[in-house]
Known about the structure:
Strand content: 25-35%
Shape: globular
Order of helices and strands: EEEHEHEHEEEEEHEHEHEE
Strand order of the largest sheet: 6-5-4-3-2-1-14
Amino acid sequence: xxxxxLGSGTSTGVPELGCGCEVCRSTDPRDFRLRSSALVEHGNSxxxxxxxxxxxxxxxxxxxxxxxxxxxxxxxxxxTGGLDDLRPFCRQGDIQIYAxxxxxxxxxxxxxxxxxxxxxPGVPNLMLNTIDAGEEFRxxxxxxxxxxxxxxxxxxxxxxxxxxxxxxxxxxxxxxxxEKLIGVDTLVINALRFSKPHGSHQxxxxxxxxxxxxxxxxxxxxxxMHHIGLHxxxxxxxxxxxxxxxxxxxxxxxxxxx
Length: 258
């Protein structure tokens, strides 16, 4: 399984407009962060996790291959604002969207022209599929388990694909859901900033506690804001096996074992 981090930034991206901090002024490309998203490839199947407003620019750097499905974690704009830019990929077939019922309803409300009886020529052909936390489903070569996590008080989804799991925008997770992540080799999980608490996102220090419970071999932090600090500096102080993700990062997940 191969994972490409398309975007590793929070909802405002990095650099943040109007900010002159050292991270926002950094010339290290790893400190330039588009909104969070990832491509996951396995066998002959290719999945997109979230489709934010930076999707078009993110995909200009990727091979133009079929996307078999889009998995949405929740309905917020920084995770769904690029769905209309899936248009070119519809030349290769309808795009299957998988999400919980509230997110499906949101997509219908913000893109009504995609679901009308008479469609304007060229609109993306989006096929909506409703899924539920804890109910495993298949897409091509993938077996996918949606994981329930909470974004403040909002219930959202993370996803497990065999030996890999992807979680973003989480502030807390119940013990029963942690159990579903035991045995994961590689984990991508959100960490907004280092230590200052936030109402709907976990910090690096809070993420450490989750990592300790899941015990993956390697972890990458995503959905990072500029307050996280410079990539090069923070990488030097993270524990062994824990790293900051960055836009364009590619890594392979072993089929079995840690």
